User: Which sequence fits this backbone?
């Protein structure tokens, strides 16, 4: 299958798909993460909490599968990267796992029990889970862009504490706040009443913070991160990516102020997508960049699977990814009505 | 190094066994609830709506944990089994990625839709549940395709430097006989577990003299499923066992603790294997030639004994033997219970048979135990190999600090304990209050 493509060509195509899948995941999970982060602070009562739950409930599970596809796709297309990424970042990955479990259980069980105490614990479980997921992924990706401490012979010399440098921390906080903004705008779009107003007000402030942080983060990337600009200098057209990553949050601020929540929401998704892609194109051909010396990194060609595996997977992805996108979009249309303040307990 | 291996194995065993507590019920209930939703859509009979509500609620509670604990498996291939992942990625990665693409997206997307669609849109609600059922059952196919390769590698070649396997034939992965024996066995046992859980819950309500039609109807469906699956499991399992003896002689010999090669091997009703002496310390009530019949299909068939196999490639015999015995004994109990249930129901004595109903209630955990024992046979029986004949388990682990693994085991165990306590509490509450039925 697809025999006219060499393994190296397929490896490059898969790197591209890998960037796309991660991008899609960050976009689609951002608003459910944001909803979890915001619920304890903007839901005045159980009625409003249920409004938030209903606004993300039908979608979050299907959206999280993009993360599983990103992990499974890495495993299949770049086994070496999969192995090293999880082994080097063992404890952060475990925190991410705990976050994913806490979020999933909390959101599914939120109102399964009548006791307000248990509901309260689950609401905070949803918050902590969402915080762990967005923070760990933000920190992890900042470290991927900066490079991990991979020394000669592929020996990892990094420490847990070393992962939390200033660049990574800004990345982590940025991811959390982009998610908050995404969640606020989504709630504003999907719900009615006092909750929507409050969410809109939150978004007006958070879009400004996201704008400032995005600019700091991008400036830091281009000025303070070794090797970040190499690909940009070689292929200047790539500058379009960070350029959009600058314009998108500006527009988000403007639209949020004008109460055009859906437009602001789309712009905020643009911010997250283009910040992630700006970083990912900077590390190519590496997938795991080394901060010790460039040649110690693990590159696309070294990590890629065989021609046969890559081509079968490509065929599968070309057929099934569009199908998945179509039926996921269809499910969004099933729940297009705005969510009113009517109590429905058993979700 | 030894401790790291042990801890890595312990963590994987713990997380996979925990995950699989929720998988079988998901596989079975998804199909049943989908059927109930469809019947209600067709006939608008409130009883079927209540059945879908009640069993659907249990499905929801169970599914949520199955979903999130599945993530732990994917993560651990990278975190704890990095060397394995690098060795196997070319072959093992594609089924996992395809599983996400074909199965998880269906499950995840339509589970949410099914929950939040109301009864005004019953057709869509029923359709969503069918998609969930399709997704979960397809998922079983792909993960077992991956596991089948570990049991019986096919469609691959070794890399020139011997560092990894390279896929040469994707179709061979899917047509691997091991996959199909295992898949059928896994699905049947999942449906059996579901049926026994339903019968046990119905029995609880019958004992409380709550002969609501919801429970009577549910019972009559479940008892048929229980009987059919309980009979099919040993009938088809017989072929599976013969196949295992052929493909993995050490696992096969350990299942019945056959130490010496021979023909017309008897099966002992009472038998205690002793790995330290390489023999059975107790052998009583032998049925002549029966082990030969079970494992080769002929009463005079030859079985290779454990003592004649490479001694450094034997699994822990006791663990495999006792797990297999436990599973098969429970299997016969399931047939008896299902037969009794059908008889009592047909003769109209079911609701008065307090002893039988109590037995059914206490039988709810038994299929869980049988399934876990079955997986121990399959996975421990393959030891010391992680990929049969190609990679030893000891060579599959990541070299991570042992303290990290210790921390993660404690973290995950504590978390899982809280989860299961809460899950049982919620299910118990649903059952006792018959939420959705009244």
Assistant:
């Amino acid at each position: 299958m697809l025999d006219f493509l060499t393994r190296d060509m397929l490896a490059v195509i898969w790197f591209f798909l890998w960037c796309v899948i991660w991008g899609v995941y960050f976009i689609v999970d951002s608003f459910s993460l944001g909803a979890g982060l915001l619920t304890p602070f903007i839901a005045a009562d159980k009625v409003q909490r249920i409004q938030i739950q209903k606004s993300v409930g039908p979608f979050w599970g299907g959206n999280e599968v993009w993360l599983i596809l990103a992990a499974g796709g890495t495993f299949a297309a770049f086994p070496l990267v999969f192995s090293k990424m999880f082994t080097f970042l063992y404890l952060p990955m475990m925190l991410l796992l705990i976050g994913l479990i806490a979020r999933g259980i909390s959101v599914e069980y939120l109102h399964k029990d009548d006791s307000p105490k248990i509901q309260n614990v689950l609401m905070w479980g949803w918050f902590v889970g969402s915080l762990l997921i967005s923070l760990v992924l933000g920190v992890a990706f900042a470290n991927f862009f900066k490079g991990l401490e991979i020394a000669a012979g592929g020996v990892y010399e990094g420490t847990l504490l070393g992962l939390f440098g200033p660049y990574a921390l800004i990345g982590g906080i940025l991811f959390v706040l982009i998610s908050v903004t995404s969640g606020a705008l989504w709630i504003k779009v999907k719900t009615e009443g006092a909750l929507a107003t409050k969410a809109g007000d939150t978004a007006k402030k958070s879009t400004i913070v996201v704008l400032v942080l995005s600019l700091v983060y991008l400036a830091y990337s281009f000025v303070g991160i070794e090797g970040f600009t190499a690909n940009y200098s070689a292929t200047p057209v790539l500058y379009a990516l960070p350029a959009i990553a600058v314009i998108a949050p500006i527009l988000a601020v403007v639209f949020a102020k004008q109460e055009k929540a859906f437009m602001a929401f789309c712009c905020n998704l643009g911010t997250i997508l283009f910040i992630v892609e700006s970083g990912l194109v900077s590390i190519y051909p590496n997938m795991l960049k080394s901060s010790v010396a460039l040649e110690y990194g693990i590159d696309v060609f070294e990590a890629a699977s065989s021609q046969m595996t890559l081509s079968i997977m490509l065929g599968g992805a070309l057929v099934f990814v569009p199908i998945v996108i179509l039926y996921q979009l269809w499910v969004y249309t099933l729940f297009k009505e705005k969510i009113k303040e009517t109590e429905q307990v058993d979700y | 190094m030894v401790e790291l291996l042990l801890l890595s194995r312990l963590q994987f065993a713990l997380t996979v066994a925990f995950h699989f507590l929720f998988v079988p019920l998901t596989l079975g209930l998804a199909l049943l609830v989908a059927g109930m939703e469809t019947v209600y859509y067709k006939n608008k009979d409130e009883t079927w709506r209540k059945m879908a509500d009640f069993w659907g609620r249990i499905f929801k509670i169970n599914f949520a944990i199955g979903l999130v604990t599945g993530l732990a498996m994917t993560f651990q291939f990278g975190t704890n089994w990095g060397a394995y992942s690098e060795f196997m990625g070319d072959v093992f990665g594609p089924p996992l990625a395809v599983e996400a693409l074909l199965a998880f997206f269906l499950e995840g997307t339509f589970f949410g839709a099914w929950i939040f669609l109301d009864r005004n849109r019953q057709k869509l609600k029923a359709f969503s549940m069918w998609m969930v059922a399709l997704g979960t059952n397809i998922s079983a196919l792909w993960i077992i395709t991956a596991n089948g390769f570990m049991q019986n590698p096919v469609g691959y070649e070794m890399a020139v430097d011997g560092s990894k396997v390279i896929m040469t034939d994707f179709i061979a992965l899917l047509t691997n006989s091991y996959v199909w024996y295992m898949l059928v066995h896994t699905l049947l046992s999942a449906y059996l577990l579901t049926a026994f859980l339903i019968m046990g819950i119905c029995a609880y309500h019958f004992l409380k003299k709550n002969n609501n039609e919801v429970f009577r109807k549910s019972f009559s469906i479940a008892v048929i499923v229980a009987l059919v699956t309980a009979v099919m499991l040993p009938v088809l399992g017989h072929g599976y066992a013969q196949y295992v003896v052929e493909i993995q002689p050490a696992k096969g010999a350990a299942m019945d603790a056959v130490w010496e090669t021979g023909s017309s091997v008897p099966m002992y009703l009472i038998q205690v294997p002793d790995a330290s002496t390489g023999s059975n310390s107790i052998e009583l009530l032998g049925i002549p030639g029966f082990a030969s019949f079970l494992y080769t299909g002929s009463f005079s068939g030859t079985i290779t004994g454990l003592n004649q196999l490479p001694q450094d490639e034997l699994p822990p015999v006791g663990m495999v033997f006792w797990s297999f015995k436990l599973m098969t004994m429970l299997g016969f109990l399931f047939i008896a219970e299902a037969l009794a249930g059908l008889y009592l129901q047909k003769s109209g004595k079911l609701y008065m048979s307090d002893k039988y109903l109590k037995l059914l209630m206490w039988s709810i955990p038994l299929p869980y135990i049988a399934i876990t024992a079955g997986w121990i046979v399959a996975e421990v029986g393959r030891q010391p190999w992680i990929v049969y004949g190609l990679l030893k388990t000891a060579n599959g682990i990541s070299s991570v600090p042992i303290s990290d693994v210790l921390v993660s085991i404690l973290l995950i165990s504590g978390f899982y304990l809280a989860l299961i306590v809460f899950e049982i509490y919620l299910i118990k509450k649903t059952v006792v209050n018959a939420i959705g039925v009244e």
